[in-house]
Amino acid sequence: MGESPRSSYPPPVAACADLSAETAPEAPVGTGGTAPADDPDVWVGGDLDPRALVIELDGAALDEVRALAGRIRAAPLPTLLRSPDDHPLDAVRAVYARAKAALDRGTGIAVIDHLPLDEIGDDDTAKAVFWTIGRILARPVAQKWDGTVLYDVTDTGRTFGYGVRGSWTNVELVFHTDNAFGAVLPRYVGLMCIHPARQGGTSRFLCLRSVHDRLRERHPRALERLWRPVLFDRQAEHAPDAPRVSWAPVFSLDGAGQLRARTNAGIIRKGYAVAGVAMDAETRAAVEALEEVVSDEDLRFELPLERGQLQYLANQRVAHYRSAFTDDDRDPAAKRHLVRMWHRDEGLPTYDG
Question: Cβ(343)–Cβ(150) under 8 Å?
Fold first, then answer.
């Protein structure tokens, strides 16, 4: 980047290079930000019946999915060239319309239940089906700097650390939004479950507006700090010569004046470590307050992801968590395997948007 932002409020996301304790960007003085008071989609875990979040594929939709899988097997084509516009999918489109309404105007969570994976057969065909119908929701976008748009979430045996995302390991993933460190976040995150873990891998969710409001009640000074930028570790998802950290607020307002968030306390801590910058007392207290509030059990709820289910989240409204897990060591083919898509109609489909 050029000059470190000091006297003026930086853009929503800026890349920071060559930082030291002496040259780190100061947290600029701001208003602290306020979320709209009339947001109708605020919830805590006890408010939700997980069963109400599930949208079943009815008989007509299942018939369309089976026919789609048959056409995919009969006419080979690179998966990324497949489009829902090339297939009769009226019933599936109706299911996705319900899911999008839940994501945009409801809880921010929708589970489509479920693709008949045993009938579909091989994983490559299942991925092609997921890709094709998932495009009904919104445009797919890159999930890595190299342009990957269809992403396998599975334990690769690598050690979680710099440049190795937690999604490639079996470690616990704290409450987070996907790509919290990125220039542009996905609006929606979609997951298809091919195989759940033998043990663990529990999924939990919480409403980020509820986190914001509890911070306001319990830690107002910390909340004010989180409306101003902090450092995020970019997890090596950038050009080789680009800065290793980014600079963005946890809470912000979108163009319509609605609260949006990017959060991952672990990635914030790593951002300061990677940059070689000592976290000041105000920022440390704010991150600790964030960690405390997202740990409140009454805010969250659990929703297991079962084989064949498609889970969609409004990424900047709902944070998610995954517990550590153990795979089935008796059958490597049955190890935990999810496939992920990111969706966003804004900006470009490239990683930085």
Answer: no
Q: Residue 210: pLDDT above 90? A: yes
Q: Which of 12-16, 65-69, 111-115, 181-185 has the lowest mean pLDDT?
A: 12-16
Count of structural domains, the chain: 1
- How far apart, in whole angstroms, are the C-alpha atoms of residue 182 and residue 276? 20
Phi and psi dihedrals of 20, rounded to 5? Answer: -140, 175
Write down the pTM of the prediction. 0.89
Evaluate whether residue 300 is within a structural domain: yes
In a domain, 157, yes or no: yes
Contacts of residue 43, Cβ cutoff 8 Å, sequence gap at least 6 = 107, 207, 210
Yes or no: say if 192 and 339 are a contact pair by the CB < 8 Å rule. Answer: yes
Residue numbers of the domain that contains 330: 14-25+36-49+148-343
> Has residue 195 been placed in a domain?
yes
Residue 120 is assigned to a structural domain of this protein = no
Per residue in 225-271, pLDDT tens? 999 999 999 999 999 999 999 999 999 999 889 999 999 999 999 99
Higher per-residue pLDDT: 34 or 288: 288
Q: Are strands 140-141 and 199-200 parallel, antiparallel or unpaired?
A: unpaired
The string of pLDDT tens digits covering residues 151-168 is 998 866 666 666 666 676
197 CB contacts (<8 Å, ≥6 apart)? Answer: 170, 325, 326, 327, 335, 336
- Residue 94 token pair: 């109706």
Spatial distance between the Cα atoms of 138 and 190, rounded to a whole number of angstroms: 11
Structure tokens, 151 = 């992403």
Which CATH number covers residue 215? Answer: 3.60.130.10
User: Can you name the residues that pair with 113 across neighbouring β-strands?
Assistant: 56
